[in-house]
Amino acid sequence: MSLEILDFPTAPIDRNLIPKRPFAYPKSWTRGTLKEEDFLYSIPENCLDELHGVVAALRRDPLPTLMLRPEMFDLAACRSFMTDVGRTLTEGTGCAVLDRLPMGQFSRDEAVAAYWLLGSLIAPPVAQKWNGLMIYDVRDTGAKHGIGVRGSTTNAELNFHTDNSYALMPPHIIGLLCCQTALEGGKSKLLSWRTVYNELLARCPHLLPRAFETFLYDRNNEHRSDASKVMRKAPLNIENDDIQVYFSLTGIQDGYAMTGQEIDEDGQELLRAMKEIVADPEMCVELQFQPGQIQLINNRVIGHARTGFKDNPDPDKKRHLVRLWFRGEGRISYDG
Known about the structure:
18 strands, four-stranded antiparallel beta sheet, 25% helix, Double-stranded beta-helix
């Protein structure tokens, strides 16, 4: 019996609307052109003062992080700061690193609460799993990366991808708070999907229409038990003369493996071209997380990856990032 496939609810793209001109900086960038001042933000002292006030209030009157809303606290300086950061995510480079929360003065839970509130000033936090999990710990569980296994639960190298590319409502913004670095490796890698698009436009424009047509994606078991395990979805979409990217090479390969289908010739050629482009080290920046730093990316225009890593044998010193997803539309549930 063939595997049921869920169709992503979107209309076919009019080929005449596919962008014919390359994107320019700051929306398109490479390792050599990305300016540090366009993505690295030192958290201002007045913002840190407000966050210390939040932590003091929670020490007096504890509340679960999931209950916290920015309007519950005096966060005027943080609101102004995060408005600038949000503008960078939507209109600028698409990525930002906030440097940094005072991990030596906050407990881990207090740091996560501060991080939750900062991100909430851009968009509401949303569920990261079908079961409603809102705060996701990125740690190696000893699992092996494969079909139905999220790479974030392993220490494996991860290819460039869009978080939740296989879902009905992928998050707008991905946040990662560094609580502990790995003993070796575990670097974050970022690239601009618009730059990848520019390269496709220059190298193989005849393949671009195929990027706006559907592929099969493994849904990573994030659905009801009786729901389809595979989704049919296009990697690229168009919105307001810009592109949105929902790409995962591993997710696509696994989707076809699960159904026993083969990718068409143009689809294979497109995936080979994208794989070759993103493999160029000049296309991306590598960032080594430091405890207290927060990385925010626009999930629909920035691809992210990770180098493999080796953990410290001390359980208290193992690599640990806390991930939050934020979305400005739909419900806060996983499928929006």
